[in-house]
Amino acid sequence: MRKIITAISILTVVLMLEGTGWSQCAMCRTALQSSPEGQAIAQGFRYGIIFLLAAPYAIMGGISYGLVKAYKKKRTPPKA
Questions:
Q1: Could you give the CA distance from residue 73 to residue 67 in angstroms, rounded to a whole number?
Q2: pLDDT value at position 47?
């Protein structure tokens, strides 16, 4: 129980400290979208963000698939 309370406390502090970062994202987006060149750069940022988000999920999915396959192989009784 104490570990859960500690984890929640740490998470709360981290989220409270992150407030200034969110405003910077809105300011960057506004600055980038105010010109045609900025719009092209903003589109590149969007694709970059999607790529950076997809890579960890693909890696974890591959690891999970391998673990499930190994677990099923271990549980399967040998054929006689």
A1: 10
A2: 84
